Each structure stands twice: as C-alpha cells, then as structure tokens.
Amino acid sequence: MSFLELCEKYFGCQDLYEVLQIEKSASEKEVRKAYHKRSLSCHPDRVEESEKLYATEKFKVLGKVHCILSDKEKRAIYDQTGTWDDDDDVEFNGRDWMEYWRTLFKKITLADIEEYEKKYKGSDDELRDLKKAYEGGKGDMDKIYERVPFVKLEDEDRIRDILQKLIDANELPVYELFVNEPQMKRDRRMRKLRKEAKEAEEELRKKEKKSERSDVSSLVEEIQARRRASNDNFLDNLEKKIFQG
C-alpha cells in the first residue's frame, strides 16, 4: 500500500494538506500547530490499550505528513507533482515517530514560562494586548487582568501609566471606569489576585511534571482562562486539553 493510500485509509483523503486540515498556503508555524492538534487524537499514549495498534499506525502516517510539509524542498515538489523525492518505505517504517514528536514538542517547564514572561513584559505584544483589553473592557482594570498575560499586583502602576500615556496621546479613548475607579472595586480585585497568585503558583509547581505544552503562548491563554473561571481546576483542564485533544 502506498503512503497516499495509507493517508486515505487512516484519514479518508490522499491530500496531505487535508490530512492536517489546513490550507495549501499554510505557514510553517500553522503546519506545526495543525500536526500537534491532530496528533493528540491518535497519540499511542493517549488511547485505550485495544486501540494502540491502530493509533500507532495512524500516528506514523501523520508524522510522515508533517515531515513532508515541514520540509521546504519536499513540500515544493509535492505542491508541483503530488509526490516527493524520497517516497520509500525505509524511512517511514524505520523511523521512531514517537521520538520525532517529542523532539518537536518538548516539555514546557515553569522556568520556560518565567523566561517567556520576561520577554513579553514591555514588548510590542504586551502593548497590543493592553490596548485591546482596555478598549474591549471599556477601561475596566478587572478585564485587563483577565485578558492580558502575566499582569500581576505589582504591575498595576506600570500598566496604568502605560494606558494613561496612550490616553493623553489620543491613542485610546477616556473611560470613566479607568480614570475614576472606585476604591472598593480596586481593593476587591487586589484581594482576589493575591489569593489566585498563591494558588496558581502552588498548582503549577505541583503538577509541572504532568503538564506538557508545545506552545508557551497557549499555556498563557490557559492561565488567563483560569482567572475568568476561578472555580475550574486549571491544570486538570490543561492536561485534558493536551492529552485528549
């Protein structure tokens, strides 16, 4: 059975882009992200014992698809001819596709998150997120804390200063809730954030070994989601999202 026939068998199509559910114009990052997303549903370690054999073969096919589309030369040949330059069974059957996956999607540690936080703060990305959160929440600082990654208690004065300068420069509208926030509302937010910060740090450290993530920015999104739904078990939901797709 040819490789494209295997694609048909396991994914119902012979188009490699369709296997990953992406457009032909997808960027390298989009190809990688799609591979990760699709692989979670057939990763041999994520399925029942009775499904492992089938999942392993499907996982191998998916790995080969990514291998082709992530290689500029192979992808160019495939786009032009519908095939590629090393269409043989040696690499496909002999390669350790589990190791291939682990190489691409390394375990994310707390240290990785902290390093990402350092790069994010003060960056253009943070500024963009602040402006979007400010306007989306109509100046509500509670909304800014929910929607902008890594905003902590000690950041409040810095964030307010950034936003005020943008307001003074007419880059942002004036919202009464921002310029005259009730002290009671601010105090309530401070108490909540102190409690959440302590809980989040304890849970991240406790379950760090159980959590894998290929994309730090996605983990940041999960952290923000936890703020918006404080009754959810953040890391349990994170594991479910990763391991069950």
Q: What's the total number of strands?
A: 0
Name the shape in a single word: elongated
In quaternary terms, these chains amount to: single chain
Task: Give the low-pLDDT segments.
Answer: 228-245
Topology as a string of helices (H) and strands (E) = HHHHHHHHHHHHHHH
**CATH homology superfamily of the largest domain:** DnaJ domain
Describe how the helices and strands are arranged.
Elements: H1 3-11, H2 16-20, H3 28-39, H4 52-69, H5 72-81, H6 89-94, H7 97-104, H8 110-120, H9 124-136, H10 141-147, H11 156-168, H12 176-179, H13 183-207, H14 216-228, H15 234-244
Helix pairs in contact: 1-4, 3-4, 4-7, 9-10
Write structural notes for this entry.
With 245 residues, this protein is an all-alpha fold. The protein has 3 domains: 102 residues, Helix Hairpins (Orthogonal Bundle), CATH 1.10.287; 71 residues, no CATH class; 28 residues. Helix content is 67%, strand content 0%. The chain is built from 15 helices and no strands. The longest helix is centred in the C-terminal third of the chain and has 25 residues. It is elongated, with a radius of gyration of 23 Å. The two termini are 29 Å apart.
